[in-house]
From TrEMBL, chains A, B:
Keywords: Glycoprotein, Ion channel, Ion transport, Membrane, Potassium, Potassium channel, Potassium transport, Transmembrane, Transmembrane helix, Transport, Voltage-gated channel. Pfam families: Ion_trans_2 (PF07885). The keyword Transit peptide does not apply. Belongs to the two pore domain potassium channel (TC 1.A.1.8) family. The lineage of its organism: Eukaryota, Metazoa, Chordata, Craniata, Vertebrata. This is Potassium channel subfamily K member. PANTHER family: POTASSIUM CHANNEL SUBFAMILY K MEMBER 7, POTASSIUM CHANNEL, SUBFAMILY K. It is found in: Membrane. One of its GO terms (molecular function) is outward rectifier potassium channel activity. GO terms for biological process: potassium ion transmembrane transport.
Amino acid sequence: MGALRPWARYGLLVVGHLLALGLGAAVLQALEGPPALRLQANLRAELATFQAEYGVCLPPGALEELLGAALAAQAHGVSSLGNGSEARNWDLPSALLFTASLLTTTGYGHMAPLSAGGKAFCVLYTALGLPASLALVAALRRCLLPLLSRQGAWVAMHWQLTPARAALLQAAGLGLLVAGTFVLLPALVLWSLQGDCSLLEAIYFCFGSLSTIGLGDLLPGRGRGLHPVLYHLGQFALLGYLLLGLLAMLLAVETFSELPQVRAMVKFFGSSDPLNAEDKGGILGQDELALSTLPPPEAAAGQAPAC
Amino acid sequence: MGALRPWARYGLLVVGHLLALGLGAAVLQALEGPPALRLQANLRAELATFQAEYGVCLPPGALEELLGAALAAQAHGVSSLGNGSEARNWDLPSALLFTASLLTTTGYGHMAPLSAGGKAFCVLYTALGLPASLALVAALRRCLLPLLSRQGAWVAMHWQLTPARAALLQAAGLGLLVAGTFVLLPALVLWSLQGDCSLLEAIYFCFGSLSTIGLGDLLPGRGRGLHPVLYHLGQFALLGYLLLGLLAMLLAVETFSELPQVRAMVKFFGSSDPLNAEDKGGILGQDELALSTLPPPEAAAGQAPAC
C-alpha cells in the first residue's frame, strides 16, 4: 500500500467502500428478500380472499381506492384506524419529537409535513437549526472533553501507562460507557416495558436512533392505545434520549478520532511522507499546523477551561 | 454574556436550544395540525361511507383487519397494491440504496428489515460501517480541503484580501456551490422529471436527503409504475447523490467550522480567557494545543499533501 501513489490509494479506499456497500446489499437481499415476498404474498392472498368473499357487494376498484387512500395517508403519518386518543397527530409532545428528529437528523418519518408551508418551514428551520446545533455541540465539547481527558490522565498516572495506551484505554472505556448507557440500558428498559418487542428489536431501535439513521419502522408505543399520559411521557423520554444520545455519540466519535492509532491510519492513506513530528505531539511549525486538518491531541494533565 | 460564569453560559445555550426546539414545534403544530386533522377526518369519512354502503355484506371487523394488515406491511416497506414490477422489494438496486441510507445515516425507512437476522445484520453492519465511512471521509478531507484552500489563497492574493476576509469569502463560496450543485440543481432536475411534484417538494426532498434527515415521506419514482430500467436508473442516481452529497456537505461544514469568526464565537461561549495566541495562528505551546479541540486553521499558501 505504501508503494502506491496517493490517488491510487484514495481510489482503492473508495472502491473498497463501494464494494462494502454492495456486500451489505447482497447480504440483506438474501436475508430480507424472502420474508418481504412472503409478507406481500400473504397480503395479496388476504386481499384476494376478501374480494372473493365480499366482492359481489363492492363496486370494482372501491376497495383499492380505500386502501390506497389509507396507505397514502399513513405515508404522511396520518392513521385511519385507532381511537381518538391518537387522533391528535401534531400535539405539542409529538411536534417536539418531530423537531428534535429534524435537528438531530434522525428523521423517523412517522410524521411528516403535509402542507407546502410546513415543508418550507422544515427546510428553513433545519437550515438554520442544524448549524446552531453543531455549534452548540462544539461548545459543549470544549467543556466536556477535557473533563474526560482528566479521568484518562489520572488512570494513566495511577497505572503508569504510556500516553498512547492511556488514550486507547480511555477511548475504549468511553465507547463501552456510551454503548452501555445509551444502547443497552435503554434497550433493556424498552424490552421490559413492551410485551411484544424482542430484545434484539429494542437494541435495533436504540442503535438506529443513536446513529441518527432513524428508519422509523419501529416506534415504541405507537398504535397501542396507551394512556395519553404514558404515551406523552414516553415521547419526552425519547426526546431526551435523542438529544443526550447524540451528544454522547459525538463525544465518543471525537475521542476515537483523536487516538494516535486512528490518526496514523488516516494519515497513512493520505500522504507519502513518513510520520512526522505531529504524531509525537509537541510544538508544530505553522506549515504542519496548516496541513493537519485533524484535531490536536486531547489534553493530558494540566489546565482545562472552567466549565 | 462575558460577565456570566462559564456554566451559566453553557446553561443559557442549552436552554436557548430547547426553546428553539419548542418554538419550531409550536410553529409546525400551527401549520400542520389542521391539515393532518382534515386528512384524517376525510379518511374516517371515506371509511364510514364504505362501511355504510357495503357494510351489510362484510362481517364486523373484516375491513379493519384487512386495512390493519395492509398498513402494518407498508410500515415495513411492503406494498399491497401495485403490479408486479415493484413487487421485487429487495432487488439489488433497492438493497444498495438501503445500505447507502444506513451508512450515510439518512435512513428513509421506505424499506426496513423484517427478519430478526436482517435487523441484527443492520446493527452490526452499521456499527462497523459507520466508523469506516467516517474514516474514509477524514482521509478524503485531508486530500480535498487543501485543494479548496489553494483556490481561496489565490483569490486572496489576487484581490488583496485579509486572510480572515478570504476565508469568509471562500466558505461562503463553497456553501453556495454546495447548495447550488447539491440542492438546487437536483431539485430542478427532479421537478422537471416528475409531473406532480412542486419545486418546493423537490427542494424539500433534496435538502432532507443531503442533511441525512431522511424522513422518507416523498421518494421519487415510487408507486408510479415506471419502467423498471428507468426506476433502477433513478435509484442509482439517488445512491450517487447520497454519497457525493454527504461528502460535499461534510467538507462545507468543516470549512465553515474552521472560520476564525465561527471559532471565536464558539470560544466566546467556552472560556473566560480573552482570545489567546491560537486565533492568531502560529506556533502553539503544548498546553494550548491540548486545550484546543477545534481543528487548526486550514492551509493558507504552501505545501499541501499530494493527492
